Amino acid sequence: MDYDITVSWDISAGVWCAVCDSIPLALESNSFDALITRVKIATPEILAMNGKCCENIRLCFKAVHWESVA
């Protein structure tokens, strides 16, 4: 199963955030690499707790950056 993970930097909190409603998943970490690792570990655990298939999981990490101008 494929899951799209949205990753963004929360400037006010100073952390990276990862969100996926279909897993459901919401995690944060001080470093990008640590966040990716946490998502890879947590995803099968969360899916199993929710009675979803935990085999052949593919994660697509999509970075989002919002910027205010003018």
Give the CATH class: Alpha Beta
Major β-sheet profile:
4 strands, mixed
CATH architecture tag: 2-Layer Sandwich
CATH superfamily heading: TTHA1013-like
What best-fitting shape do the alpha-carbon axes yield? elongated
* N-to-C series of helices and strands: EEEHE
Q: How would you briefly describe this protein structure?
A:
This protein has one helix at 32-49, and strands spanning 2-10, 15-20, 25-29, 58-64. The chain is an alpha+beta fold.
Topology:
Blueprint: E1 2-10, E2 15-20, E3 25-29, H1 32-49, E4 58-64
Parallel strand pairs: 1-4
Antiparallel strand pairs: 1-2, 2-3
Describe the structure.
This protein has one helix and four strands. The chain is an alpha+beta fold and 70 residues long. 14% of the residues are buried.
Defining traits:
four-stranded mixed β-sheet; 70 residues; alpha+beta; TTHA1013/TTHA0281-like
